[in-house]
Structure formats: structure tokens, C-alpha cells
Amino acid sequence: MLQPGYNLVTESVAETESELAALEFFRRVAADEDIETPVTVTGLTDLLYGSVEDERKAILSDLRQTLRKSRSLGSMDAVQFILDGRFVDDSEFRVRIERSGDGIYLDIGQMFVEEPQPMSATHAVARK
To answer: What pLDDT, on a 0 to 100 scale, did the predictor assign at position 109?
Structure first.
């Protein structure tokens, strides 16, 4: 079940009426456009994986600022980010992605003002 806030999942936990690619979702959030919620956002791990490794921290920081400043989403709205990987929660919340035999870690927790809280092995929530 989706919780209010940002639901990070490796397996979908709810069917939503609305689905957006990560780039489109963040474009709408940055423009303070209305977003029908609950919404499923796909492709975030692909977007980050495809970026230059040295730039990922800056990208995550920019995405955090975009989410923080936006009025597109209220505190009770639910967003489901479907991530292609598995959660690793050691010193900080990360996602491990396997591509071409190489595993990389994405510091996805850096995208949120509040560290995502694990609900299960495949579901974590960061509050808005």
C-alpha cells in the first residue's frame, strides 16, 4: 500500500491511474504543474545510471531542491518511484543496480530532505 510521501519500491505496491517517466515528472514538479496523484514514476535509476558518475551527487542535490521547492505535491500525496535494483541501507540509503555485470550504488537517499524509512525489503518511504 502506498504511503503519503515518496514511496521507493523495487516492486510496484499499487496500481495508479497516472504514470510518468522520471524526466517528465521532474519537469512538471520544477514548473509547479499539477500532478495527478497517486502517481507512478519510472526510469529514475536509468536516468541516474546514465549520468556521469562524478555528476550524480550534484544531480541528486538538484532533484532534492526541485522536490523541496515545488508546490505540485502536497504532504498527503503519494508518489511511487519504481527502482530497478535492490536497497542497501548501511550508513545511508542506497540502491544497488546491476548492469552489464557491474554493480553500482546510487545514493538515492540524498534525493530527499528526510532519509527514506524502510517499510520492507522492497519498499521505503521518504516523507514530503
So the answer is: 93
